[in-house]
Amino acid sequence: MSDQLDPLDLRVLSICIQQPRVGVREYARQLGLARGTVQSRLNKLERLGVITGWGPVVSPAGLGFTAMAYVRLQLAQGVLDEVTENLRRIPEVIEVDSIAGESDLLCRVVSTGPENLEEVVQRILNVKGVIRSRTETVLRRRISQRIQPLVEGLVRDL
Asked: What is the CATH number assigned to the segment(s) 7-56?
């Protein structure tokens, strides 16, 4: 656990994860704390980069992008930043991570189906500096991104 977080920070964070739309006043009521105390802790969690946003979580599938794939890219030397900026211009590329290993980048890509996925991959391959790609289609997401188990583990370790 970060030395900057205490048990109260973790309690506030936990309730925010469990009930993201409730609001500060209700968090304070449920935690038995003053509203100002909860707001102060939320501000601290934002300042430390623990909480990075408050917007809605939007499903690409809900927007019609029902297929997902991971595309591993091998790049020419010295083009990482340029390739990344060009990938940013392809809307279906929703995440890009630099990775160690045989590939240089791992892209999470969405599409409306197999034909559209092929078109997206072709646009990625047309980015100057991309040498080779390997596409792995997601059949079904088994575990969505989750943070609550990490927070619960930190609380148990206290």
From this structure: 1.10.10.10
Max CA-CA distance within the chain? 57
pLDDT per position as a tens digit, 59-85: 999 999 999 999 999 999 999 999 999
Fold observed for domain 61-138: Alpha-Beta Plaits (3.30.70)
Distance in angstroms (rounded) separating the CA atoms of residues 56 and 48: 21
Phi (first) and psi of residue 134, to 5 degrees: -140, 125
Contact predicate 69/133, CB 8 Å? no
Chain segment 17-54, per-residue pLDDT in tens: 999 999 999 999 999 999 999 999 999 999 999 999 98
Count of positions (residues) in the chain: 158
Count of other CB atoms within 10 angstroms of residue 145: 6
What interhelical angle do 24-31 and 7-18 show, nearest 10?
120
Single out the residue of 105, 80, 109 nearest to residue 94, CA to CA: 109
Dihedral pair phi/psi, residue 141, rounded to 5°:
-80, 125
